[in-house]
Write a structure and sequence with these properties.
Low-confidence stretches: none
Shape: globular
Mean pLDDT: 94
Largest sheet: 9 strands, mixed
Strand order of the largest sheet: 1-2-3-5-4-6-7-8-9
Number of strands: 9
Strand content: 5-15%
Structural class: alpha/beta
Distance between the termini: 33 Å
Helix content: 40-55%
Radius of gyration: 20 Å
Length: 383
Amino acid sequence: MSTEITPFRIEIPQQQLDDLRNRLDNARWPAPLPGDGWDTGVPTTWLRELVDYWRTDYDWRAAEAQLNTYPQFTTEIDGQRIHFLHVRSPEPDALPLMLTHGWPGSVVEFLDVIGPLTDPRAHGGDPADAFHLVIPSLPGIGFSGPVTESGWTIEHIGAAWAELMRRLGYQRYGTQGGDVGAAVSPQVGRVAPDRVVGVHVNGPGPIKTQQLDEEELASLTDLERDRIRRIEAFMREEYGYIAIQSTRPQTLAYGLVDSPVGQLAWIMDKFREWTYPRNVDPDKIIDRDRLLTNVMLYWLTGTAGSAAYVVYAQAGTWGAPKPNSGVPTAGLVLAHDVAIRRYTEVESTITRWNDVDHGGHFAALEEPVLLTDDIREFFRELR
């Protein structure tokens, strides 16, 4: 097995961009359903407007140039190509930190925190809080895709991330992540507890999906009971995408890989549901160009199917108890998310917990300053 680390640069052929434009120009649209609201899925009127912007105003070459300002690399781990950004701080004593995105995100999630985390001196912060950043693309997503082998569970990804940090020569480092990254980041601590100095997660797990008895429910705070109610609503109203992706990812992939409008709609549905506040269109919360750049990483690499397969085909692992690594762990819970400390503490050694009354599931995109500050404060005592 090769352990070589190879420099990587994004260079999308113009032919692919011309093909995308042609598909957008000739998209076949469904008729709006009655009311054309979000309750039945992404509204046709709203999506048409976003697609018009994608066709006429969005500039992939500008996004590509921005991404290429950061050093990128690929390496092979267990037969899988892994793509990652490796942005070293100008501060020589910076702490290495691995940032892991989730689904339907990508490394694009972290663009607004790279500068403040690597070079706090240039962003009004304390240079003692600096980090060297390693930001991998999850197996199967973007330039880490597609996958050809099964078995990329959270446990496997955690072991691969520990191997990546070993290859980069980092002996002491922290981990951070949200969504899938909130499961992977603690797992790296379980794999390498002697090297991981701390784990910071936004929207930490595990999430309590089992029905609670009256006594346990009565022991919860009002905030915790609200989170239980929202978990129950999610299981009733939103679980469909998990059911499809975890059972028929290839069938779904034919539509998403062939239709950019379909790929956009599939991802925008989640951004609308998981940004905060929920009743505001996602492009009013997150910049349109950033949303589209994230979608472009899925579209240009044709990884809708492998992203679904890797992220959700975790047979037998969801809900299974995980051992507590003993690594100090911080939980940042923004208003959209539903983590409850007492359940998280079963698997993690919580030393910092911050409930916030605003912000959504995509912390790095929605609340980059808040996330940066929380990461800095947590790791300040662990360096």
